[in-house]
Amino acid sequence: MNKTALRKKYKNLRLGLSEEKIEELSLEIANNLLQLPIWQKEFYHLFLSIAEQKEIATEYILHILQGKDKNVVLSKTNIQEHTLDHFLLTDNSVIKKNKWNIPEPEGGIAIAPNQLDVVFVPLLAFDEKGHRIGYGKGFYDNFLKECKPDVLKIGLSFFKAEPEFKEVFNSDVPLDYCVTPNKIYSFKN
């Protein structure tokens, strides 16, 4: 399957999940994350879920990060430039949905991508080699290229890996891990 067909397949699979199933699977993913050797880091980038897209409920991960007193960084989308601006989540942060229903901070303390230690990456599908398929606009690939070389890139998925994607481009940034409700995939050599 090409990327377009895979996007459609996984969007449809997500649309078939009930709210209760999304909550259950999201909690299992968050619990599996606790097994990764990532919790000694300082700055963690987290995406906030687009409920209308039936994305993974990341509030469980947020609670873990806050419980461990970690610095949580959120992004604001710059649609025109296909870039993300990053802000530290604080008690004063104001989160609002943009016109695409993406919850994002209105502003705050700016954080440079090269300060990040761990990035939780949204995706629609991934393969056994660590390649991911997102929504196709390149926001995360562009952002991940700005991060330091040893930043840990962790995909989150309700579903298991595809064997291998046929369409992989030089601009695609592979994952280090992908965590599902049933398995942790490691792509680190």
From TrEMBL:
<keyword id="KW-0436">Ligase</keyword>
<keyword id="KW-0547">Nucleotide-binding</keyword>
<comment type="similarity">
    <text>Belongs to the 5-formyltetrahydrofolate cyclo-ligase family.</text>
</comment>
<protein>
    <recommendedName>
        <fullName>5-formyltetrahydrofolate cyclo-ligase</fullName>
        <ecNumber>6.3.3.2</ecNumber>
    </recommendedName>
</protein>
<dbReference type="InterPro" id="IPR002698">
    <property type="entry name" value="FTHF_cligase"/>
</dbReference>
<keyword id="KW-0479">Metal-binding</keyword>
<dbReference type="GO" id="GO:0030272">
    <property type="term" value="F:5-formyltetrahydrofolate cyclo-ligase activity"/>
</dbReference>
<keyword id="KW-0460">Magnesium</keyword>
<dbReference type="Pfam" id="PF01812">
    <property type="entry name" value="5-FTHF_cyc-lig"/>
</dbReference>
<dbReference type="InterPro" id="IPR024185">
    <property type="entry name" value="FTHF_cligase-like_sf"/>
</dbReference>
<keyword id="KW-0067">ATP-binding</keyword>
<dbReference type="InterPro" id="IPR037171">
    <property type="entry name" value="NagB/RpiA_transferase-like"/>
</dbReference>
